[in-house]
Each structure stands twice: as structure tokens, then as C-alpha cells.
Amino acid sequence: MFRLILLLVIHCSTLGCLARIFIFTKAECRTLDPEFCNFESCEIFSTNNKTNLDIYVKMHYKNPINQVSVALAAYKTTRNNRVSIFNETIDFCLFMRQSFASKFSAIATGPILKISNINHTCPYQHDIIIKGIINNFNFFSGMPAPKGNYVLYMRVSAFKKWKAEVQFYARSAV
């Protein structure tokens, strides 16, 4: 992980990259197990350097959920290529108890946890609501990145089976 950030910083320092503002353009949500949950809303739009996020997941599973894993990935995309920047799977229950376990995951999920009802440790036994405004100046503010298009990908599993996935599309601006 440290090598990845170091390579990105070296690469960007030679090309003149700056820490960028990411403007989110689209969100795609997909249920992989309709008996477990479904997305009632999945919207994202940016205005005035702020991103409004509205995701509502209706849970059909009514027992406490205490085994959650999340696969997080970030890609820089071009017309015909997708370059992996980061790819990590975390035990979300452990992560919520010890967020320092993964620095990139803490950076990627921090703004979302502030506007959601999943900002507590396991077990989860309720619908998932992520609704609010993320300031684009603060999201990944310390990460140098080349100008371009990016995809942030998240896949969620419960009890060791994939249940849902969300993709956020963004473009970096100066």
C-alpha cells in the first residue's frame, strides 16, 4: 500500500499532478441477492463543488448481520483501458472497531460514514441510508492524481456471500 502511494506521488511529481477535486458524475447500484436486500434509491449528483448522495437499501433479512466484508477498488479509466489504483477487501465489522486497520479504506469511506446510518459497529439490523452532501474539496484532498476519469467500486458481502455492489464514477478537476 505504501509503495502504491509512493509510486503515485513520484509519478505525479514527474508529470506535475496536483491534489485534485473529484466531481462525482454517476452512481450505479446493483443487488446481487434480491432476497437479502434491494436498492430503493441510488442517486448522486454534483453542484457547486458539493456532491449530493442518496442511497437507500431496503433490507429483507431481519436477523442481526455480524459478518460483513467490503471489497473496495479504485480505477483510472480511459476509452479502452481501466488501470487499477487500489484494490482491497476488508472485514467491515473489524474496520468499524479499528478504522486505522486500512488507511485508504478510512479515506474512501470516511465522508460516506458521516452521512449514513452505518457509522457504528456490527451487528446491523436495519435498512441502510446514505443521504447527504459531501464537500468535493475534502474528499481525497491529500491524494495527488492525474487529471482524468475514475471509478470507485464497492462490493458488499454478508455471511461470505456477495449481496450488492455500487460503482461511483468521478472525474478529477484542478
Automatic annotation (TrEMBL):
<feature type="signal peptide">
    <location>
        <begin position="1"/>
        <end position="19"/>
    </location>
</feature>
<keyword id="KW-0732">Signal</keyword>
<dbReference type="Pfam" id="PF06477">
    <property type="entry name" value="DUF1091"/>
</dbReference>
<protein>
    <submittedName>
        <fullName>Uncharacterized protein LOC111595670</fullName>
    </submittedName>
</protein>
<dbReference type="InterPro" id="IPR010512">
    <property type="entry name" value="DUF1091"/>
</dbReference>
